[in-house]
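User: quick one, fold this
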Amino acid sequence: MDRMISRYRKLVFITWFLTLDLIMFGAFVRLSDSGLGCPDWPGCYGSVTPIGAMGDIHAATQDMPYGPVTLSKAWIEMIHRYVGSLLGLLIIAFTYMAWRYRKQLGRSPALAVGTLVAVCVQGAFGAWTVTHRLMPVVVTAHLMGGMLLLALMTWLAARERSHLPIAAAAARWRPWMIAAFVILMMQIALGGWVSTNYAALACMDFPMCHGEWVPPMDFHGGYSLIRALGELPSGEMISQTALTAIHWVHRNFAFFVFAFVGILAWRMRAEPGLKGPATLVLALLLAQLFTGLTTIFFQWPLLIAVLHNGGAAGLVLASTTLLVRLATAGRAPMRDVVPANGV
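Assistant:
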């Protein structure tokens, strides 16, 4: 039985690591403009791999040499789908184990089942991303679904790891950490909206934008949800003032996030059992500031942009770990709970 529990835990950690990798690779897909490398779903022009679609890809490339379809972009998009499919299979596997061995594991399989539902929904949004031609609201929802899936996987993994006991007094930080998590997810959604609308370079100076603290902005156009990529709801091309609004809001909300989450993480470092993830939050906040500024000053280099997305995923990971540990304040971590039958 100990071997079964060990296998379950290893499977959870492998799946958690693959989830983080997939989010990073998904950012690379989006930022390298490979999202329509295969403009159908789930295959590539009806084929399992781009090899079987060489003729269609060549024709599309000849028709639009600088368009969204090239052989390299097709492979990038399909590799992302292959890894996503593997992730789904792994989640099915540990959900089955969590359900079958729920008594031996000593906990409800509800979280594993919820994770399975989340990955199915995420797969649907992956398909809609292609069929809706990179519609910003769909792509942003797909990004947020990935972050939610990472949070669920981190929850599953964090409760399988031992850590120092959390003092009962540390529970006072839990509502603040919940607020910090909500604020962080809001900022990630705003950042996703910047990325999906290609507004990262809408302001090329810092800390001002176009030489002004509050430049001319079109919030209605920038934050209209139901519209195609690069367009306003009217069908006209999206304006520079709309892109500026998208960028400006994300940039300035970041200061509030940095202060709120940073101060909270600094205070929680004094708590045994919370110091590690709290320190990681502080480090990642600094890294996000650095990569965000570098993106502006070096005009959005791909590697830096991917790292910026990865930093956001890291903040979700560390924040979820803090929430899971705070839930054990004043009692033994869940991993140490022994089932009634003593197994």
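User: anything notable?
Assistant: The CA atoms of residues 185 and 316 lie 8 Å apart.
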